[in-house]
Amino acid sequence: MKIGITADINLVPTEVINLRLANYFPKQLIDVLQKHDIVPLLLPVAPEEMAKELVKSVDGVIIPGGPDIAPYLYGEEPLENIGNTYYQRDLFEIALIKETLAQRKPLMGICRGIQIINVALGGTLYQDLASQYKSDKLIQHAQKSQGFLPTHHVNLQPGSFLYQALGKQSLVNSRHHEAVKKVGTGLHVTATAPDGVIEGIESDDGLIVAVQWHPENLWQHHADQEQLFVNFFAKAAAQKERK
Ligand code: MN
Fold first, then answer.
1. Residue 108: beta bridge partners?
2. Residues 126-159: pLDDT tens digits?
3. Closest CA relative to residue 232, chosen from 118, 116, 58, 107
4. For this structure, is 111 an active site residue?
5. How many CB atoms lie within 10 A of CB 41?
6. What are the DSSP calls for 35-65, one per residue?
7. Closest listed residue to residue 7, CA positions, set 64, 60, 91, 90
8. Beta strands 23-24 and 179-180: pairing type?
9. Is position 214 annotated as part of the catalytic site?
10. Is position 99 annotated as part of the catalytic site?
11. Which residues contact 195 (CB under 8 A, 6 or more apart)?
């Protein structure tokens, strides 16, 4: 089985010409696929017209982390505290998300992935939780601890895909300052942080699962987070069987 992973783009200025805007991929995500005999196919940022052929070549798609989403894509101007954006990746991934759904293949979003999936389906985002999320319960989501360490809890919706892998509650890492605000069409919330921030969404048709944390940096020491990947691979295998 083959799963496509969309590339992040190196936005750090560099003297090395081949590293400028280079496409790159999280090693620990590739590791979990290979551990379970899934062939990772890396999908570089490409013209939107190529999305169809790229999706045809895989049995499922994972969209990993990266920079903030260009706010014009959900009808807003950039606020003071938004981070780096790169709208070319946004446009490609939106085309890829629509194509993945059209071809009825499973789709998993990680961190930025949950955000771009939500925007692709007509939802909106908080550009910056600390300045926009009005609650005295707000916890730290841009964690200062190292990225592989879980820091806050999430509560999972009984009966959901996430609940099946993680149970009622899980401890996760948190490296984001954006978050889902208005939920996109055909999606529903299946994970929340103790302050109410949305941490997981799934589609009503069962093809999409997306999380705000980084399971690719947790699965090595946290069996529930590895189970999340295993269940996604099983979903892709079942969907392939059905075709
Ligand atoms: Mn969080």
1. 62, 209
2. 999 999 998 999 999 999 999 999 999 999 999 9
3. 107
4. yes
5. 15
6. HTTPEEEEE----GGGHHHHHHT-SEEEE--
7. 64
8. unpaired
9. yes
10. no
11. 133, 135, 137, 138, 139
